[in-house]
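Section: Multi-chain targets

For targets with more than one molecule, the full set of components is provided together so that the structure can be written out for the assembly as a whole rather than chain by chain. Components appear in the order listed by the source. The example entry contains two components.
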Amino acid sequence: MPDLYATQTADDGDDDAYAVRPYAVTGGRVSAASVDLPMEALVEASSNAEALRGLTPEKKKILQLATGQYQSVAELSAHTRLPLGVVRVLVTDLAEVNYLRIHTGGTAQDASTHDESGGLSLSLLESVLDGIAAL
Amino acid sequence: MASQPSDAPVATATPPAHIAPTVVKIVIAGGFAVGKTTFIGSISDIDPLNTEAAMTEHSVGVDDAGGVTDRKTTTTVAMDFGRIALPGSLWLYLFGTPGQDRFLFMWDDLVRGAIGAVVLVDTERLDQCFPAVDYFEGRGIPFVVGVNCFDGVAKHQLEDVREALGLGPNVPLMYTDAREKAATKQALIAVVQLAMKRIKGN
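Its structure, encoded as tokens over all components, is:
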């Protein structure tokens, strides 16, 4: 199969130029795992994700944004100006090779924040309520 | 899932030195230009950000092999959102819905896992919030309705608005002012309280 990234992997250091159509960045893929990724899931670059050679500018940018701070998938989309679906695919790719970590605590199957039926737990909502009231 | 090529550079996973914040979200809905972004901005720690989702219409049923050759229309839908850090390592995200009815199908993605929603209403354009009210009612998602007082003046009685919108007696309805943090806070508190009431009632 031809390498669809071939023309993009040349490192010209220009991270801001997205002259390609959005889904060309993902090789046209939309994986099942990425579709399930909540837009509020937090992403954190691995401390040793320094081997950035060979990554697309878009992936580099995501790792840079998520280094030393948590960024939600939605924030990464806003800062990279890439559509949400594209960022979901790229983040899922990067997580598969351990370049970043995805934190979905507070979403889905987290027993500390959710009850057995999958809904948000009362104790979590109480903390949110107290937090908002104190703003 | 595809296995990784053996020569791929794989970073060694290291244990996290700190625990990631717990994330919760509330959806802010309403018609076009009803003040959703202003509402979010009145309380957000960060200036409201804008994310886009590229929409391909008629894409359902098209497989990866690309057997379908129809021309597809791609459009982008913008959503504004903000973030508030709460004590106890909690991050609350406020997501504004895309303003137009034809993007209602996108809301499933937005509301998944949300505490609930605030529907903002402009009494001059009441009909614009019908899709949002129908959507949340139909899916049993806790929502409150905030009548946005654009000039700080309430022009309609709340009960008239309730009747016009066909809201049940259990839907919290309040005046709000999207520019005022205090008013925004009250609307958010009302959503969380409603969500808690639902849990306690079960």
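The helical segments of chain B are 36-41, 107-111, 130-139, 158-165, 181-201.
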